Amino acid sequence: MSITDSQALNTHFAISNHVEFKTNPGGLTIAEITNDHAVATVALQGGHVMTFRPREQDPVIWLSNAARFELGKSIRGGVPICWPWFGPHTTDRNKPTHGFARTVLWKVLEIKTLDDGETQIALELINTPATQAQWSYPSQLQIIITVGMELRIELITRNTGQETFSIGEALHTYFHVSDVSRIQIQGLEDCHYLDKVDNSQHKQQAGPVTIHSEVDRVYLNTRANCLIEDPGLNRRIRIAKQGSQSTVVWNPWIEKATQMGDFGDPGYLEMVCVETANALDNVVTVKPGETHRLEAVISVESL
Ligand SMILES: O=P(O)(O)OC[C@H]1O[C@@H](O)[C@H](O)[C@@H](O)[C@@H]1O
Predict the structure, then answer these.
(1) 98 Cα to the center of ligand 1, angstroms
(2) ipTM of the prediction
């Protein structure tokens, strides 16, 4: 079967009333997940969670209303997977920012309903000559996405070759907020960060993170969970992470968002990226035969 043929995918993997594949006008194949706890969508391109909304809640994940759904282009919003490097490639600026995992096809390994009614979908990046031209190390990259009251995302890297390699990575999660200038991000107090909007200077965080202009920061050596406190939606989003030593906080603010052209209106005001990552000094070394797992569990609490 063709790995993007929705009809064939539905024959093999659909679960009646819970999971159905559809192909959108841009040619992307998308799994629509609905269960007693939540609704979500996942694109096979990029292994990309596009939306997630627990029942009775506003969307937790932000998807731009001007997002482009095109083959080979990253979707603005959701949870792009940055891998096997984060940000620009360190030696070859011709290679795509944030790696190639977010723009290539992934195949479905398994879809199942768990005992408590959660839906779990496992995908694997398809290695091709095009991906191997960018990353020559034999490796296997899988993602396990569990949709329930919480959204759990596990990104699993296996070194299937004979040589040690290092990866940078991120679950580049766009969160939906009522008004980014009114939120507080807790959990990064006193952490050191690299400030990408101030000549990549190293700084130390004082108090919770608040956002009133462009913010692009890589917090280093932090395993802490983060909380996004959003008084406008009367809720707190909790991001609990494992296997991650960096947290990236990003909001492009109005000028950059306008230049990007796919942020929509008022776009930047309704989102913040809090990314579960291993970046810069925190890249991860994976030896032959080893497996590395990066995980984020995203949940919502009332204030
Ligand atoms: O436009 P892209 O490639 O999705 O990247 C968005 C942003 O992603 C963030 O993770 C980076 O820190 C920013 O520097 C970058 O602008």
Answers:
(1) 8
(2) 0.98
The chain-wide mean pLDDT, for the chain, equals: 97
Residues 86, 279: contact at Cβ < 8 Å? yes
List, for residues 165-192, the tens digit of each pLDDT value.
999 999 999 999 999 999 999 999 999 9
User: Is-catalytic flag, 98?
Assistant: no
Say if 185 falls within a structural domain: yes
CB-based pocket (< 6 A), ligand 1: 74, 97-98, 172, 196, 216, 248, 250, 275
Dist CA 17 CA 118 (whole Å): 13
Pick the residue whose CA is nearest to atom 9 on ligand 1.
250
Please report, for the domain that includes residue 243, its CATH number: 2.70.98.10
User: Is 104 in contact with 130 (CB distance < 8 Å)?
Assistant: yes
Containing structural domain, residue 251: 6-302
The pLDDT of 191-206, averaged and rounded, is 98
Question: What spacing in Å lies between the alpha carbon of 172 and ligand 1's midpoint?
Answer: 9
Catalytic residue, candidates 172, 202, 255, 295: 172
260 Cα nearest atom in ligand 1? 1
- What are 48-69's pLDDT values in tens digits? 999 999 999 999 999 999 999 9
Q: Does residue 138 lie within any of the structural domains?
A: yes
Burial 90-116 (b: 16+ CB within 10 A, else e): eeeeebeebbbbbbbbbebeebeeeee
Q: Which atom of ligand 1 is nearest to the CA of 172?
A: 10
Name beta bridge partners: 99: 83
Look at the chain and report how many structural domains it folds into: 1
Model confidence at 1, pLDDT cuts 50, 70, 90, reads: low
Confirm whether 172 is a catalytic residue. yes
